[in-house]
Amino acid sequence: MMDQAKRLRERVRQSKPVKEQRKTRIIAVTSGKGGVGKSNFALNFALSLVKQNKKVLLFDVDLGFANVDVLLGRSAKESIATMLEKELSVWDIIEEGPNGLWFISGGTGFHDMFRLDEAKLNTFFTQLSSLQGHVDYIILDTGAGLSVENLRFIMAADDVILVTTPEPTAITDAYAVVKMVYARDRNIHIKLMVNQCTSEKEGIQTADNFKRVTEQFLNKRIEHLGFIPSDAHVTSSVKKQMPFFLAFPNCPASKAVEQVTYEYLQLPVPFKLGVKGFLLKMLSI
Ligand SMILES: Nc1ncnc2c1ncn2[C@@H]1O[C@H](COP(=O)(O)OP(=O)(O)O)[C@@H](O)[C@H]1O
Ligand SMILES: [Mg+2]
């Protein structure tokens, strides 16, 4: 694996530069615990960025529970798994979602990515590199928790949005992710998103407590990106298999996502890895 990764790093470095039109930024949306609303947030945040005229690719990399296509009411024909199997290009597996949102499904079998043979791993990195400059954001809907694969995505992304609910179990698991990440690299930018709050007060309190604990025990400041209320429109849009941001654009959750998007776009852009940088970092972890 080490030799293989080293050779691949060389190849990614040497691959031809594309004519860069956009500065592609990679955002990992992650959580400690499953079921906190990560996929719903990733999808609706992506659609909200699209509304702000950004070109966005949503990439489902939840290795155990990939379900962005279910939330969209679409069954993706191709996936990363079939791209590797059938030697397709990344452009063959991108699906066009609503309002021009692009998405890629992980597909089953994807979890063995880092155990792939060299040729397949090479295809994966070459194909992904070719996305550079074509989109403004690649949003990764990662799995929950502390798997090695998740950590790779988190550590290599430009931004990490950590989703939690106010529940103590979700918070404890989110904290475990922060601790693990900072034990490896203290320069990762983690932004906290509190989902399913019963009130604004609860959202702020949850974030404040979380920030206090990370400052006290890890000596690190976490940014609070925002919160989304618990909203019955989310559940009903999941049942309809239509993103709430489109099905109910004026519901409290949609308004909150819009606010989070606004906050996100105001943030300074401290450093820029781009797709190649992301891939190189993934290979070196
Ligand atoms: N803001 C919210 N308000 C109400 N229910 C929510 C909200 N966010 C998520 N949910 C519920 O939680 C479920 C799990 O969400 P999902 O995005 O699939 O979580 P994850 O990707 O973290 O596993 C959804 O099907 C929905 O019923
Ligand atoms: Mg999910």
How large a portion of the residues is in β-strands, by DSSP E? 15-25%
CA-atom Rg in angstroms: 18 Å
| Name of the CATH first level | Alpha Beta
Question: Total helix count?
Answer: 13
The small-molecule ligands in this entry are:
adenosine-5'-diphosphate, magnesium ion
CA distance, first residue to last residue? 12 Å
CATH topology: Rossmann fold
- Main sheet overview: 8 strands, mixed
Q: Superfamily at the CATH H level?
A: P-loop containing nucleotide triphosphate hydrolases
Low-confidence stretches: none
Second CATH tier, the architecture: 3-Layer(aba) Sandwich
Report the principal-axis shape: globular
Q: Averaged pLDDT, please?
A: 88
Number of domains: 1
Helical content class: 40-55%
Q: Which oligomerization state do the chains in this entry correspond to?
A: single chain
Q: Tell me the structural class.
A: alpha/beta
N-to-C order of helices and strands: HEHEHHHEEHEHEHEHEHHHH
Structural account:
The protein has 285 residues and is α/β, with parallel strands linked by helices. It has one domain: 3-Layer(aba) Sandwich (Rossmann fold). Helix content is 48%, strand content 16%. It has an 8-stranded mixed β-sheet, with helices on both faces. Helix 1 runs antiparallel to helix 13 and helix 7 packs antiparallel against helix 13. The chain starts with a helix and ends with a helix. The protein binds adenosine-5'-diphosphate and magnesium ion (MG).
